[in-house]
Amino acid sequence: MLPCRSLLVITGESRYLWTHGITPRKCDTVQASKGHKSGIITSDVEDLTLNKRGIRTSFMFRKVKQTPYNCSYPLACDSQMKDTPASFPESNKEA
């Protein structure tokens, strides 16, 4: 878990080949005592507590390239994938 007011820059394999996001939930499991290093969860379940989430904001900055990008991860790169026709839901239930 990132501490408040943190910045995480995702590059390389973690950017292209891993999924990431803020899980939608109302509470997080956090360390109850303050004596441990921030971000590390103890194996002592009695030292864990639920912390109600406040407002969380995520910013994502992207650069739109005008030419195809020669990515190191071609299977995950939109500009290097084979052209496949877009699929659309055929009913409201599929949407």
UniProtKB/TrEMBL annotation:
GO terms for molecular function: demethylase activity; oxidoreductase activity. Gene3D superfamilies: 2.60.120.1520. It comes from the Eukaryota. InterPro entries: ALKBH4 (IPR032857). GO terms for biological process: demethylation. PANTHER family: 2-OXOGLUTARATE AND FE-DEPENDENT OXYGENASE FAMILY PROTEIN, OXYGENASE-RELATED. This is Alpha-ketoglutarate-dependent dioxygenase AlkB-like domain-containing protein. It comes from Bos mutus (wild yak).
